[in-house]
Amino acid sequence: MAQGKIKGICMIFFIVPFLFLSGCGRLEDSDTLKARKVLNYHQGKFDNEPVSGKLEGGVRVVEVKAYRFFFEPPKIVVNKGEKIRLVVSAEDVPHGFEIEGFEIPGYNIETVIMPGFPMTIDFIADEKGVWDIICTIYCGFGHSTMKGLFIVK
Length: 153
Ligand SMILES: [Cu+2]
Hints:
Layout: H1 2-46, E1 54-56, E2 59-67, E3 70-72, E4 75-78, E5 83-90, E6 98-99, E7 119-124, E8 129-134, E9 147-152
Parallel strand pairs: 2-5, 4-9
Antiparallel strand pairs: 1-2, 2-3, 5-7, 6-8, 8-9
The structure holds copper (II) ion.
């Protein structure tokens, strides 16, 4: 009787940790798999995109034109580690320019870009990823739909 009880307790001590370990292991695996899938998706989606602009003295210069209510080109694609110079011009009315969530030291996102006065923005593309480009100055009824993409691959 007592032996049976001890056996039972031993079984619990053996089985419970085993269940815990296998459970956690499975959870970690599915997360890793999911993360890898997302990564592959993004690589597949953007790695073949042609790079924007042209290299001038080691700097990738991209001319960006802001219109009511879109940016041309709609996608800016650069390589990680490159020095970037964006020359943003307002082609009709005053516009603003922001790469949402991508910090550019020394650039104020509230800067008004006036037609005829292009804005030069210099920075280094030091992080891989995809960000939205938005207009920060109200420019009319379609202002909130005025979006572009900034891709560092
Ligand atoms: Cu606008």
